[in-house]
């Protein structure tokens, strides 16, 4: 956006005809549309000139004239008569998109044609259309306008010379000169009743026209052709809809010279208000330049003279002179234009006041002094450390209620979710020799874990994938045979229990590393969210509770991004490295010789052996009863000799399987005890120790002044955006001052 100094300055005055920049508000010669009649109008013209110079209409719409009506109703001729610029006719290009004509003051005449791409365009099309720019300078023929508009049409609708499509692009024509005033006119696509591609095109045009007519700052020029039945003019119904009081509407009848005698008499009655169906409108009649009996090359003066002669002749001479001709139309437009300005300008001032209170403008400030930088940085870091410590403990303040429940800012909640997933995954791990449900049932039956582990198939679906107990014992037996050492026959190396355990727990470290990555990601997302909150100005400071000294960074987005990438992430990455080193220590413990003096293991081992002995005893009694070696009377007596003989394996294979069963049980019992210990170690020694317990250590606070300066320095894009916002704020403040002067007068 060009600075205000690049535009001609308009100075608000209460008297005199000349502004400081030399612009004559009223000069001798032909009247222009917005020549002022008194000091009040002169001041309003200057205000609107200045507001357009400042570009505030992007935020606050200024009065505009909207030209609308059916296709071929003569809209372009009306636009030409008002602006005194020869607009092309008899081509389709002006009927499929909006043409915006802007008049503005400048010491030198020129006409600039550009294209404003619509929101429906993709990025490439937007760039292509924005690059279009053609200028007609003061010493060049104005007839170039038609050629350049056709060229722009080719850019908007390439390959479609007939304009068989509707687009939301805007063809912008900016006309400046020493006799031009701040005025914007919108030539809308002509309404049609039928399109060969279907009703979609018709509806799109109607939606576009209704959109502009509904704008409260729009002065509606509703164009209807005299040779069309007014009863069929839907534009009149829309005038009732959008301007029921008709304060903003000027209905215009064009092409009166095309009527026969009877039709002329009927039209005169309508214009005079003697037709009850149409007397609620204040009609105006124009004779178009391109109508019958005129030629294309006539000047504006000749056009006006021909029109005046036409209406002075019979039967039109019975009309009130205020109801026909371009000069009287300009007078009506001037009245409505100033009325719209008086209506909209006070609301604009209120809107500008609201805009300037927005954070993006209110937070803009000049370069901070060194003491202020250090003070703000310390305040921000103190807030960040305190908040991070609270959130790591699960103590959430009011700020967190402004976020969704699953937001990263609820740090402890997100870590708890990762804890549960880690515990579940490790508990449900599928070792080679043990069904994951064997151990899971023990925890789920105590209500520690869900009754069905997440992500696991139902037991009926999964049991078929697990080897049954006998097969597992047989597999362990084979392992005993294949890993023998120097021990005597029928003796097996007890270190096989350790090998079984290593096989069962082989994926523990992999699962734990994945857990560490998830914790790291949670912390990263947390800091990315919370830093922007704690580095910004507090609400109390913005409201002025703590005086005028700001307690946060004005460019908080830039500062938070740099602090996150330059300081927090390196600390988090180091914490992740330390956590993985801690995991390596636990992995080395897992790979060490098996040791287990846990009472749970010893009790399980004893219970297993007692259970095995009990089962053998029952089997012996059943066997004795089945062969008749024991009477019913002796059923409760145990023959210890026979029991000992039956308990002794009869073959080397039986003995091997017996030892395999013992080894397998001990390995499984050891696995479950060590697994629970491993889970607790990972949660405390890895996660808590290196991430949450000392979370404030992840927040560097010893930055030098040079580092703080670098932190608050805007990057190129942010700096450009800041300059734009500062310019916008400056323009809005100046616009507010201009409006205050006007309201005081």
Task: Give the tally of structural domains.
Answer: 2
Mean pLDDT metric = 79
Shape, principal axes of CA atoms: elongated
Distance between the ends: 30 Å
Radius of gyration: 44 Å
Strand order in the sheet with the most strands? 4-3-5-2-6-1-7-8-9
**What are the low-pLDDT stretches, counting only 5+ consecutive residues below 50?**
1-31, 291-295, 435-446, 448-466
By DSSP (H or I, 4+ residues per run), the number of helices equals 24
User: What structural category arises from helix and sheet content?
Assistant: alpha/beta
Fraction in beta strands: 5-15%
Main sheet record: 9 strands, mixed
Q: How many strands appear in the DSSP assignment?
A: 9
Fraction of residues in helices?
A: 40-55%
How would you describe this structure in keywords?
alpha/beta; Rossmann fold; 2 domains; nine-stranded mixed sheet; disordered N terminus
Put the structure in a nutshell:
The chain is an alpha/beta fold.
List the topology elements:
Elements: H1 39-54, E1 64-69, H2 75-83, E2 98-105, E3 110-116, H3 123-130, E4 133-137, H4 144-156, E5 170-177, E6 183-187, H5 199-214, E7 218-225, H6 234-242, E8 249-254, H7 261-271, E9 284-285, H8 300-312, H9 326-356, H10 359-362, H11 370-393, H12 411-427, H13 436-444, H14 459-462, H15 469-482, H16 496-504, H17 508-535, H18 539-542, H19 556-591, H20 599-627, H21 640-647, H22 652-692, H23 705-712, H24 716-744
Parallel strand pairs: 1-6, 1-7, 2-5, 7-8, 8-9
Antiparallel strand pairs: 2-6, 3-4, 3-5
């Amino acid at each position: 956006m060009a600075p205000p100094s690049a535009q001609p300055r308009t100075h608000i005055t209460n008297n005199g005809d000349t502004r400081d920049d030399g612009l004559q508000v009223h000069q001798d010669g032909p009247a222009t549309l917005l020549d002022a009649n008194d000091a009040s109008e002169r001041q309003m013209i200057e205000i609107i000139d200045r507001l357009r110079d400042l570009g505030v209409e992007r935020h606050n719409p200024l009065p505009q004239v909207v030209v609308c009506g059916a296709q071929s109703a003569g809209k372009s001729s009306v636009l030409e008569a008002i602006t005194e610029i020869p607009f092309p006719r008899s081509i389709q290009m002006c009927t499929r998109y909006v043409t915006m004509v802007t008049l503005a003051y400048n010491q030198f005449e020129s006409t600039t044609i550009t294209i404003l791409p619509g929101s429906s365009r993709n990025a490439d099309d937007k760039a292509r259309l924005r690059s279009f720019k053609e200028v007609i300078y003061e010493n060049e023929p104005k007839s170039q306008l038609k050629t350049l508009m056709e060229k722009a049409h080719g850019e908007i609708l390439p390959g479609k010379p007939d304009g068989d499509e509707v687009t939301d692009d805007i063809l912008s024509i900016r006309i400046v000169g020493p006799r031009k005033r701040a005025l914007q006119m919108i030539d809308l696509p002509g309404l049609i009743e039928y399109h060969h591609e279907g009703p979609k095109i018709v509806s799109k045009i109607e939606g576009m026209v209704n959109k502009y007519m509904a704008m409260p700052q729009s002065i509606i020029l509703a164009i209807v052709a005299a040779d069309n039945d007014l009863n069929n003019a839907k534009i009149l119904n829309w005038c009732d809809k959008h301007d029921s009081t008709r304060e903003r509407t000027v209905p215009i009848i064009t092409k009166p010279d095309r009527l026969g005698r009877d039709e002329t008499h009927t039209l005169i009655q309508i214009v005079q208000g003697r037709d009850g169906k149409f007397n609620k409108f204040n009609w105006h009649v124009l004779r178009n330049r391109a109508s019958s009996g005129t030629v294309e090359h006539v000047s504006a003066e000749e056009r006006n003279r021909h029109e005046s002669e036409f209406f002075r002749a019979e039967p039109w001479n019975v009309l009130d002179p205020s109801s026909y001709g371009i000069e009287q139309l300009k007078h009506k437009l001037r009245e409505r234009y100033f009325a719209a300005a008086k209506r909209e300008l006070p609301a604009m001032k209120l809107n500008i006041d609201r805009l300037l209170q927005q954070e993006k403008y209110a937070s803009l400030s000049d370069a901070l002094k060194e003491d202020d930088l250090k003070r703000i940085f310390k305040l921000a870091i103190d807030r960040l450390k305190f908040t991070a410590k609270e959130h790591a403990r699960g103590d959430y303040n009011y700020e967190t209620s402004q976020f969704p429940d699953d937001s990263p800012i609820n740090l402890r909640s997100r870590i708890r979710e990762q804890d549960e997933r880690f515990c579940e995954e490790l508990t449900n791990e599928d070792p080679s020799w043990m069904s994951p449900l064997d151990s899971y049932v023990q925890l789920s039956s105590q209500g520690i874990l869900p009754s069905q582990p997440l992500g696991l198939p139902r037991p009926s679906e999964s049991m078929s994938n697990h080897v049954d107990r006998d097969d597992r014992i047989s597999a362990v037996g084979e392992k005993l045979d294949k890993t023998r050492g120097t021990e005597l026959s029928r003796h097996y190396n007890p270190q096989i229990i350790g090998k079984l355990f290593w096989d069962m727990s082989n994926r523990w470290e992999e699962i734990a590393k994945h857990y560490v990555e998830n914790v790291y990601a949670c912390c990263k997302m947390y800091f990315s969210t919370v830093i922007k909150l704690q580095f910004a100005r507090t609400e109390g400071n913005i409201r002025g509770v703590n005086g005028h000294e700001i307690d946060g960074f004005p460019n908080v987005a830039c500062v938070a991004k740099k602090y996150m990438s330059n300081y927090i992430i390196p600390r988090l990455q180091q914490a992740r490295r330390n956590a993985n080193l801690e995991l390596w220590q636990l992995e080395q413990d897992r790979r060490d010789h098996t040791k287990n003096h846990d009472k749970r293991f010893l009790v399980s081992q004893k219970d297993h052996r007692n259970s095995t002995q009990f089962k053998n005893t029952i089997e012996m009694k059943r066997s004795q009863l089945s062969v008749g070696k024991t009477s019913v009377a002796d059923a409760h007596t145990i023959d210890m000799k026979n029991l000992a003989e039956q308990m002794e394996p009869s073959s080397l294979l039986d003995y091997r399987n017996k030892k395999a069963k013992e080894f397998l049980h001990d390995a499984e019992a050891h696995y479950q005890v060590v697994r629970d210990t491993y889970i607790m170690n990972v949660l405390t020694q890895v996660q808590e120790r290196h991430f949450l317990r000392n979370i404030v250590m992840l927040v560097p606070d010893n930055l030098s002044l040079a580092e703080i300066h670098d932190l608050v320095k805007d990057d190129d894009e942010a700096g450009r955006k800041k300059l734009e916002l500062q310019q916008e704020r400056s323009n809005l403040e100046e616009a507010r001052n201009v409006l205050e002067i006007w309201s005081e007068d």
